[in-house]
Each structure stands twice: as structure tokens, then as C-alpha cells.
Amino acid sequence: MKYLFLAVSSFLAIVTQMIAGNNLFVFNFLDLSLILIAYWAMCRGRVQALFVGSVAGILMDAILGWPLGYNGFGKTLAAYFIGAAAKRFNLEGPVVRFAVITSSSCLSSLSVFILFGLLQRKSSAVFLGASLIQAVVTGAVGTLVLSVLEAYSRTRFHRTI
Predict the structure, then answer these.
(1) Distance between the two ends of the chain, CA-based, in angstroms?
(2) For labelling, which of 2, 124, 134, 157 has a CA lying 20 to 30 Å from the CA of 109?
(3) Does the domain spanning 2-160 belong to CATH 1.10.3470?
């Protein structure tokens, strides 16, 4: 049941991003699925984050019409990177969270770009430039969302005491 919830939440994040991206230009540079992956890797379980990353990436490939696996590999690699960083380092500060989310977004985009090159698909340097902008925007919004969720859970915990 938990994995069904993870798959549905990944699907809803992608659909929300697509709908918002059609209406607001800023949402084209935001990766909600990566924020969801970061939440699961930092606050919940790393194995579930890997599952969310692979499902979100494959769903994104299916929606974009790309061959299945490009984004699946990139998002899974980003989930592994965030999970490994969360295991080894203290990710409580907003600067560290921003750095981890931004670098994982860059890693995901770079892996997709490398896969395009290895499989002899057309890609351009504009993809890397847009990916850098997307990484910074995703890092900033992800840090803000995770900080708000942490503050909410802290206040909810203090109410029960």
C-alpha cells in the first residue's frame, strides 16, 4: 500500500508540474518530482526515495515521449545521491539542503545529457543551461518546502506535549 501511495504521489507531482508549467512560465524551471524525491530521501526512507525516483523518471519519460529510462536513471541517481548525503551528513541547515538538492538536480540532468550522447540522440548545450537554471530554482523551492514541513512537524510535536 505504501508503494502505491508513492507511485500516486509521483504521478500527481508530475501532473501538477505540467499543468502549472502550461500556465506559469516559472514552473517550467521547477522539478516537483525532485523535491518529492528529496523529501523522501531526507525525511523518510532512502529505499522509498529510490522507488519514487525511478517511478517519477519513467512517468516523466512516458509523458515526454522519450525512450523509457532516460529520466528514470537520472532521478534514481539523484535519489541515491541525496540518500547517501543524508546518511553521511547532517542536512538540517538550509544552505546544506540547497546545495544537496541543487547538485542532485544537476546530476540528474547531466546523466540524461550523457545518456543522450551515448545513445546518439540529438541534444544541445541549451539543455545544460536550462538545467542549471532548473537546478537553482528547484534547490531554492525545495529548501523552502522542506523547511516549512520541518517547522510544521515541530509545532505539531510541541502541541502534543
Answers:
(1) 31
(2) 2
(3) no
